[in-house]
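Long-time lurker. I teach an intro course on protein structure, and each term I like to show students one example going from raw sequence to a predicted 3D structure in token notation. This year I'd like something fresh instead of my usual example. Would anyone be willing to generate the tokens for the chain below so I can use it in lecture? Attribution to the forum is fine with me.
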Amino acid sequence: MIGLVSFGLLALYIWFCIRLTRWASRQAKDSSRPGWHYGLPTALLSFGILFWDWLPTLVVHQYNCATKGGFYVYKTLDQWKAETPGIAKQLEPVEGAPSITKGNTTIYPLNQRFNWEITIKPHLFGIKERNERIVDNKTHEILAIYIDFNSDIGGDGIALKQAVY
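-- Reply from a regular --
Happy to contribute to a lecture. Here you go:
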């Protein structure tokens, strides 16, 4: 029921904005000016009240995805095995281990040596950065990292990237 009322109010607001813009356009024509001289600013102002944050959110989200987001491999599993011979055979997956929460970071133990750490960090305009890492417990070295940005606005997401070794 609340959704129906919300859509009704939104439709009423859009109808009002259109009527206001047409009125402003007629006023411009009555004063011997092109209709868009008054109609365009009126439309931008009236629709801008409702959608003021949409464009900045979209721009910041796309910028963050393009420049900071992606999947980066700092050390492959084969490289790690070569640096730590024999340890990989001893590792067993952790079943049912509880997650550990420290502030805005949640840690999931994968086995005796690796953790999967997820950090969610808020940004401007309701954008949230999700940073997921595979970390070696003993050396605290990050093997791989995935960074993504979420917002209430849909987007293409990120392009996958691989770090240069």
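Some talking points for your students: The chain has a mean pLDDT of 86. The chain is about 40% helix and 25% strand.
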